[in-house]
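A.,

Following up on our hallway conversation. Structure tokens first:
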């Protein structure tokens, strides 16, 4: 049963932003302009979620028999976005896209052949896939280095499958 509460996902609660800024400022001393850039990235993602909410809550939202995006799915994406915003500097925020199956995709793109994406639903199930460039198999042939799987979001920090694959993509340690 869908919830009936109303919210605008870009209405950022002050305590969410303050705790994220505090976390970043404790890791390293950055200039205010870097925080402003980071804040604008968070705000842009939240506006993307607002657009998904306003455009995709009804069936057939693009005329191709799409399943509606639920408020629960939007809230799960919002929560994951804030967890992603708390990751170390050097890991950008994802792009967000509604899918015709009623899920929201979050994608981190580094360069051609290097990306990581998850699709999540309102129950917290997520499907992930990633490309990490070209490697060699045992016979010396070129093969794509990739990953894929399914997991479940929790109320804890960012899930291990997401954290480990973002670390792999951006070659940065994530605790």
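Then the amino acids I'd put at each of the 175 positions:
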């Amino acid at each position: 049963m869908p919830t009936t509460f109303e919210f605008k996902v870009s209405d950022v609660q002050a305590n969410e932003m303050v705790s994220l800024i505090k976390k970043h400022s404790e890791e390293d001393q950055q200039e205010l302009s870097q925080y402003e850039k980071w804040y604008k990235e968070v705000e842009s993602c939240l506006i993307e979620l607002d657009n998904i909410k306003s455009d995709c809550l009804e069936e057939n939202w693009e005329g191709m028999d799409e399943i509606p995006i639920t408020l629960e799915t939007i809230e799960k994406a919002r929560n994951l976005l804030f967890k992603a915003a708390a990751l170390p500097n050097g890991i950008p925020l994802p792009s967000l896209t509604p899918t015709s199956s009623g899920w929201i995709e979050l994608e981190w793109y580094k360069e051609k052949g290097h990306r990581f994406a998850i699709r999540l639903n309102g129950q917290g199930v997520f499907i992930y896939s990633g490309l990490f460039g070209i490697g060699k198999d045992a016979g010396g042939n070129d093969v794509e280095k990739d990953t894929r799987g399914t997991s479940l979001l929790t109320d804890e920090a960012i899930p291990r499958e997401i954290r480990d694959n973002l670390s792999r993509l951006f070659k940065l340690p994530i605790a």
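Residues 32-56 form the longest helix (25 residues). Curious whether your intuition agrees with the design.

B.
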